[in-house]
Amino acid sequence: MGITIGRKNRRVNLLIADHVIRFLEMKEAGIVKNYGERYLPDGVISRGEIMDEELFVTILEQCVDEWGIKKREVQFLVQDSHIALRKQLIPVTIPEHEIKGYVYMELGHSIHLPFEDPLFDYEVIGRNEEQQEILLFAAPDKAVMGYADLLEEVKLKPVVADISFLSLYRLFHFTGQSHPGDHLLCLQFDLSAIQLSIFHDDKPLFSQHFRMNIEMKEWQKRTNGVLYKNDETSLNGALEDSMVEIERVLNYYRFTVQQGNQGVTKILLTGDFPDLKLVEKRLTETFFLPVERIALQVNVPIEPGYEVIFGLGLKGAV
Fold it and tell me: Strand, helix or coil at 296?
């Protein structure tokens, strides 16, 4: 989305999810200087909403001190559950420098979003003699600026809010793995939620966020990672439910978005789910599509949970 709030100066990159805070700092494009994470107690953030602001601020202050990032400029990712992606037709007579103003005027009339007072960005993706088509990325102002205000409260300087699936594709392109002709399903498979996005010709054409049938309290943090503390049958059931949701998205994309002419050709899998190998196996067995992982060669070992925030760090640098 790239909402600029200030000038660029020694930025750090921040991801805040329901279960974890992660940061990553680069020396230059692709070179990691520092990174870290802090898991959150269950219930501090739920579905992108901060439920215990006092505890969240206390934890965030501890992270800022521990990571040595006080007074630094920050790029942060907007929670996936807050993001809306729309393809919108507007008159071709609207000059590009007036599109943002036109969208503001048409909100609630010819342009509808699932929330009021949005922050948004757009990209023109096509035009003919009568109309031009834009991709509209939007999030509620209250959600974005609410996080920005709390970052300022802990002595950080928020300057850019971005979208996770754009950051992930930015990294995918950086590694040389992207091919515009593909219809690429990006799966960000995390502990309790999945973000799906589909790219074609380097543009996102579809986005959906849904919860897995696993509560955060069912996970248990160990020194060597996050483990599921319930029985294996429950975990397998949650994975099968996820495959059903993914199949619905694949069918919608093929038969509605592409009008039956084309389906997804490849899957990119990432996220901090503890057993991505198991997820990859289920995806391959269910959909018979090639499944790729990010092929990232950097100066430090980066776990899949950091890949999205690594892509955020590439913003403006590549």
Answer: coil
| Domains present along the chain, CATH in parentheses | 3-80+141-164 (3.30.420.40), 82-140 (3.30.1490.300), 179-293 (3.30.420.40)
Which sign does the torsion angle of CA 151, 152, 155, 158 carry? positive
Question: Who's near 225: CB < 8 A, 6+ residues apart?
Answer: 274
Nearest to 246 by CA among 215, 293, 282: 282
**pLDDT tens figures, 253-310:** 999 999 999 999 999 999 999 899 999 999 999 999 999 999 988 888 888 999 999 9
Question: Residue 223: what are its φ and ψ, rounded to 5°?
Answer: -65, -25
Q: Residue 272 in contact with residue 194, Cβ under 8 Å?
A: no
Name the token pair of 122: 């757009």
Give the amino acid at 251: N
CA distance 78 to 48: 9
| Alpha helices (H) along the chain | 53-67, 99-106, 141-153, 164-174, 232-252, 276-287, 307-313
**Integer CA distances (angstroms), 191 to 90, 96, 253, in order:** 39, 40, 25
In the block, residue with structure tokens 């409260």: 153
Q: Which residues contact 276 (CB under 8 A, 6 or more apart)?
A: 189, 269, 270, 293, 304
Residue-wise pLDDT tens digits, 166-204: 999 999 999 999 998 999 999 999 988 999 999 999 999
* Residues 6+ positions from 60 with CB-CB distance below 8 Å: 21, 150, 151, 154
